[in-house]
Design goal:
Layout lengths: L9 E6 L4 E7 H32 L6 H16 L4 H5 L5 H23 L4 E10 L5 E10 L5 E11 L5 H14 L7 E6 L3 H4 L5 H10 L6 E4 L1 H9 L5 H15 L2 H13 L15 H13 L1 H10 L10 H24 L6 H8 L11 H11 L2 H9 L2 H7 L6 H11 L6 H13 L9 H12 L6 H6 L9
Parallel strand pairs: 3-6, 6-7
Antiparallel strand pairs: 1-2, 3-4, 4-5
Helix pairs in contact: 1-4, 4-20, 5-7, 8-13, 11-13, 19-20
């Protein structure tokens, strides 16, 4: 009798080397088993697609790179385990798929950040704006929040593409929108850190003025802070040594601007076997380059003098002892300031650490608020806590303090730990943005740019299983 006439036909397969027949199911259950199996394979392939898309976004790579990665995977599988090639071909990594995956991951991260913000006892914001390759102003808003357990969260809260004006009122409106989106309470805002721009710091029409006006309704006023790194850089410019720097920049540009001269200079250095093979360009926007150029120019000043004479472009200042002395001073002071500037940077640097670098500090009990004086006296008289302070980081030390004995001190610590000392995270992210939205990817949408920047800066791991659970169906690659 034909197979289809059996109501309970048995489906069998051979298992193991012994060839024993194993009953799997009646034909009425085969379709369910097949769907479950296919669903599992599709879900696994989809999860792999999400994880690869996450890596692409984390590294700021193009969406189309997903297809190349899939080709590489297929090539490797064909050599290592060709019997499983069909499984890996199911991983969808087309440019459109990767773009959708990245948006889904970004939405998941937004959800996790939103959950974290609800636990913040105190938070601060750092913001800055810069134009991208399409001359669109991109406003970055970072949040630094601390919960009751003194756990710190640093996250990129939002990226706002501002196609119109960027006045203080405009910036305030987009910040207000972000606060509403994440249900942030203005009264928990401790500090606003900016780069000191006029549209940011203006007390009337600037962002700070707008925030102050809004917070007056709540009966409080948050701190404001001009990025300490930016302040340090501005202070460094007060010493005018352009009489030294200008001839150096002119000379370096003379050597580097011509491909032929540059090669000849490199060959000359190689021929006389100097320690340094070249001299770098000076770039004003890269603050470290000044120190590198000065240091290299000083070390190669004799070789540069010989080369310039050979090119009929002598620099008489190189034989002026007073000018060389000024050059040596500028090299030393610039190196010191660069080293100091690097110490001020970092993702988890606390404002108290930065302030300690800027100015030596010791606690004067009488200058403290009355609510802290008794707790601080008790703290300074506790030898066990003094030892703990020396052994632990400042954050871990405050976590160790008993809540009952030091309630005001812990609240004070939470507020100030939340403060951004610098706009370092903004500047670091702008560097990523220049790489991500380049002239080769200038058509990137604002939404995709925000998603990639959030994934690239976030400390939070995506919840891939949760993302998959929200999907109604899985599509394999065609």
């Amino acid at each position: 009798m034909p197979y289809q006439h059996y109501h309970y036909a048995t489906v069998v397969r051979y298992a193991g080397n012994a060839g024993h027949r194993v009953v799997l199911a009646h034909h009425t259950d085969v379709s369910h088993l097949s769907q479950e199996c296919c669903g599992s394979v599709s879900a696994t392939a989809t999860k792999a697609s999400f994880r690869i898309s996450h890596l692409l976004a984390k590294r700021g790579k193009a969406f189309s790179d997903g297809s190349l990665i899939k080709e590489c995977i297929i090539q490797a599988v064909e050599e290592i385990c060709p019997e499983r090639i069909d499984t890996f071909k199911n991983i969808s990594l087309s440019a459109n798929t990767v773009a959708r995956r990245i948006d889904d991951i970004s939405n998941n991260l937004n959800s996790q950040v939103s959950n974290k913000t609800q636990e913040f006892i105190s938070f601060s914001i750092a913001l800055d704006e810069s134009t991208d390759v399409c001359d669109t102003s991109q406003l970055l808003l970072f949040i630094r929040g601390v919960n009751k357990d003194l756990e710190i969260s640093n996250e990129l809260l939002s990226v706002h593409s501002m196609h119109g004006t960027t006045t203080g009122i405009d910036i305030f409106k987009v910040i207000e929108k972000s606060f509403l989106e994440y249900n942030l309470k203005w009264e928990n805002l401790k500090c606003i850190t900016t780069d000191g721009g006029r549209n940011m710091c203006g007390t009337k029409k600037g962002l700070i003025g707008q925030i102050f006006t809004n917070c007056e309704k709540e009966g409080f006023q948050p701190m404001t802070l001009h990025c300490i790194i930016h302040q340090q850089a501005l202070c460094g410019k007060t010493l005018d040594l352009s009489c030294v720097m200008d001839p150096i920049i002119s000379t370096v540009n003379f050597i580097r601007s011509s491909a032929l001269r540059h090669r000849q200079f490199q060959d000359f250095l190689k021929e006389i076997e100097t320690e340094y093979p070249d001299i770098p360009y000076f770039t004003a926007v890269r603050w470290l380059s000044r120190g590198k150029v000065l240091s290299r120019f000083f070390e190669l000043r004799n070789e540069i003098e010989i080369f310039l004479i050979d090119k009929n472009r002598p620099l008489p200042l190189l034989t002026d002892s007073e000018w060389v002395w000024k050059l040596a001073f500028l090299v030393d002071i610039t190196k010191y300031m660069n080293d100091f500037n690097l110490k001020l940077q970092g993702k988890d640097v606390l404002i108290c650490d930065v302030y300690t670098l800027v100015k030596a500090f010791s606690c004067d009990i009488e200058k403290l608020p009355p609510t802290l004086q008794m707790e601080m006296i008790d703290l300074q008289s506790n030898d066990a806590l003094k030892i703990k302070h020396r052994e632990e980081t400042l954050v871990d030390f405050y976590k160790f303090l008993p809540d009952i004995q030091y309630p005001n001190l812990k609240k004070f610590a939470i507020e100030y730990i939340s403060v951004f000392a610098t706009t370092y995270l903004c500047e670091q992210t702008f560097s990523k943005m220049k790489y991500i939205k380049s002239k080769y990817r200038s058509a990137m949408t604002d939404k995709h740019l925000e998603s990639i920047l959030k994934i690239g800066t976030s400390n939070i791991q995506p919840q891939f299983d949760r993302i998959l659970a929200e999907k109604h169906q899985f599509h394999t690659s065609h």
